[in-house]
Amino acid sequence: MLKTKELTQNHLISQMEGNIVSDMDGETVMLSIHNGKYYNLGELGGEIWGLIKNPLSIQELITTLQSQYEVDQTECEEQVHAFLNQLLKEGLIKIEE
Q: Rounded to the nearest 10 degrees, what angle do helices 58-68 and 73-89 cross at?
């Protein structure tokens, strides 16, 4: 597993198997079967979760989000990296070169 500081725009990310995901009033909630923890990904986190159902580069993810929301590129990159680092730390996503 990669350390969080090693994430780059070219890494491919995708969901780890073993999560039960549901929509609750527009927010995505998830139960990890592997660690028994419950997560509230929120609305935007849920959208990111849906986008990484299949492997997607971090750059493609950021580009997609910027096309859907009015957000500064630097802020989008920082927020996406922070979110992905948290998912990686919890063992919820896979990273490929």
A: 130
Q: Mind listing the domains of the chain with CATH numbers?
A: 4-96 (3.90.930.60)
DSSP designation for 16: P
The mean pLDDT of 19-27, rounded to a whole number, is 93
Q: Looking at the whole model, is its pTM more than 0.70?
A: yes
Give, in order, the Cα–Cα distances in Å from 5 to each of 21, 64, 72: 27, 23, 22
The predicted pLDDT at position 4 comes to 46
How much is the pLDDT for 8?
86
